[in-house]
Amino acid sequence: MVGDGEMRSSVEEKIEELELKNTVTLYGFKSNPYPYLANSKVLCMPSKWEGYGLVAAEALVFEKPVIASPVGGIPGIVNEPCGSLCKSKEEFVDVLERYLNDIAFYEKKVKGARLRASELDNFPQYFKLLMDTYYTIIKN
């Protein structure tokens, strides 16, 4: 896991409780997270809230499918061809397991990530999407 915050000690406790110390590594904050993203298979964002969700767009540039909660700006970035939007812990587990075990499904999502990144690589469209997201948040 890359990133840091006030829940780090809770995450460490959960890793200990589930005996995942040999499976999960907490890298903390990294000023350049891109090498970690480039060397990953998917981006998993089980966020309870999110702003625009820039990291999702960045993952797509690296051709990484995104598994995320449908919060904030994420639904405007992640669509079915490039990833999955999950509403429960169980759904995250099921979807992640499929990404890791079904090679044909995974490759289809990688291809979708590549296509979605090229669609998002359009500054006027990106700016409009960003502004629409901010206006939606402000109105709510």
Record keyword descriptors for this entry.
140 residues; mainly alpha; Rossmann fold; 3-stranded parallel sheet; 7 helices; 54% helix; 6% strand
- Using only CA atoms, what is the Rg? 16 Å
Overall pLDDT level: 92
CATH superfamily grouping of the largest domain: Glycogen Phosphorylase B
SSE order, one letter for each helix or strand: HHEHEHEHHH
Quickly count the domains.
2
Largest sheet: 3 strands, parallel
The amount of helix comes to 40-55%
CATH level 1 class label of the largest domain: Alpha Beta
**What order do the strands of the largest sheet run in, or round the barrel if closed?**
1-2-3
CATH-derived topology of the largest domain: Rossmann fold
Please provide a brief summary of the model.
The chain has 140 residues and is mainly alpha-helical. Helices cover 54% and strands 6% of the residues.
Helix-strand layout with pairing:
Elements: H1 8-17, H2 34-38, E1 43-45, H3 54-61, E2 66-68, H4 74-77, E3 83-85, H5 89-101, H6 103-120, H7 123-139
Parallel strand pairs: 1-2, 2-3
Helix pairs in contact: 3-6
What does this structure look like?
- The protein has helices at 8-17, 34-38, 54-61, 74-77, 89-101, 103-120, 123-139, and strands at 43-45, 66-68, 83-85.
- α3 packs across α6.
- By secondary structure, it is mainly alpha-helical.
- The protein has a three-stranded parallel beta sheet with strand order 1-2-3.
- The protein has seven helices and three strands; from the N terminus they run ααβαβαβααα.
